[in-house]
Design a protein that fits this description.
The chain is of the alpha/beta class and about 160 residues long. The chain has a single domain, classed as Divalent-metal-dependent TIM barrel enzymes (TIM Barrel), CATH 3.20.20. It contains 5 helices and 5 strands. The protein has a 3-stranded parallel beta sheet. A two-stranded parallel ribbon has the order 4-5. Helix 1 links the parallel strand 1 and strand 2. Helix 4 runs parallel beside helix 5. It is elongated and about 50 Å long. The protein starts with a strand and ends in an 11-residue tail after the last strand.
């Protein structure tokens, strides 16, 4: 069995200690939030090769590999699936930048959560919302496939602020 954990469980300052503990307890996988993993990059979704190499060397030294990415829309202001053409464009561009990063560093799985960015407006039918979401995520899934990754949609409850 392969064990994995998300790097949102510690601060970037504590990462090396965390990697040591993970290695000690037999973990081999790491799910990342790019803003934490590439904390020293100007843009964590477009880190330099030097930043990528340093971060990967740190985890590989502890016997860890990247297995997943979350926080796909981190730092994308005004992104929303259903609000407007502009907000949807920001949403799609944000997902694409995550897909591109996954392709660059070999992350096999992307987890889309973002409950606040997928709220269906009261004046939109759920049927229409599902239709639009399906079309967008199909496009994003095709892009993910081209980058040798998968796009998973996290099931989030209404308590997280979403209705989709």
């Amino acid at each position: 069995m392969n064990l994995a954990v998300s790097n949102i469980a510690w601060t970037p300052t504590d990462r090396l200690c965390a990697y040591e503990l993970l290695a000690e307890f037999g973990f081999s996988g790491l799910e990342i939030a790019p803003g934490l993993f590439f904390h020293d990059a100007d843009d964590p979704f477009n880190p330099t090769e030097e930043v990528i190499t340093r971060a990967l060397d740190e985890i590989h030294g502890a016997g860890l590999s990247l297995v997943s990415m979350q926080s796909l829309l981190f730092g994308v202001e005004g992104a929303a699936l259903f609000e407007s053409v502009e907000s949807r464009s920001r949403f799609e561009t944000g997902i694409e930048r995550a897909i591109n990063l996954a392709g660059r560093v070999g992350i096999p799985n992307l987890v889309f959560g973002s409950p606040n960015q997928r709220v269906v407006p009261k004046d939109m039918s759920m049927e229409n919302a599902w239709s639009e979401a399906t079309m967008l995520f199909r496009r994003m899934g095709d892009k993910a496939h081209s980058a040798n990754t998968l796009l998973a949609i996290e099931s989030t409850p209404a308590a997280y602020g979403t209705n989709l």
